[in-house]
Fold this sequence. Notes:
By secondary structure, this protein is mainly α. It has nine helices and two strands; from the N terminus they run ααααβααβααα. It has helices at 10-60, 64-87, 93-112, 120-143, 154-168, 172-187, 202-217, 220-236, 238-242; strands at 148-150, 191-193. Strands 1-2 form a two-stranded antiparallel sheet.
Amino acid sequence: RFCPSPPPRGLAGVFQATKKLFLSERAGQGWMLEFIRKNAANGLSVANLVAGLSSVLCSLNRQYQYSCWLLLVGFLLDLADGAVARRLNACSALGAKLDDFADFTTFGLATALLLQPQGVLAGLLAIAYVLAVFARLCFFSSAGIPFTYRGLPCPYASSLLAGTFLLVDGNVVVLGVTAGVMILFMLDRGFYPHDKVLESQRWKKLVYTGGVVAVLFLPSTVASVYCLAWATSYIVFPFAIWSCKT
């Protein structure tokens, strides 16, 4: 017959209890750190999604200036989430789907509302823009081309439209022409490099840091010109400037 030994008393019992508590705390801390590592990039994607939904609400209330700022913040978050996922070795199918959904919301629906679709033609243009972003995301998801995009990435199109809006103070004609050009670029079958701003040369990291400073701290004119120059350089000189090898 098995007779359990009595629990340790005195200093031995205190030592064992302290040891168990310390080990359980370490296990809890390890679990928390692992959870943060696996979901840091997903957190950035969720923040991008929240920025997009907030931009939609601002546009519905005709607060287009705030909408533009939120779109530019989403642009910076989108560039960061992939870099964080690769850096922490936390890429997953869930993260890819969450990133696509956030991109569609922020750079598709929210960006299309900047066109102020109040008439039939403006409404059709906004719908065409959303469908172009949808087709662009679906095409890239099934292309299977590593480190290369097929068609202009929608974050750059959104950044260019938001910067244009701030610069021209919401001129509908200019925005409509710009959106039409962006639709053609997104549906184009040309190749664009995976810029890897935060995983490449130091000057590219400085460009990203400058974007953060411009969007968060500088006047709207300076921020819009900065983001316009950044997006335009990627669109016009994708491989000459933004290739991973340059």
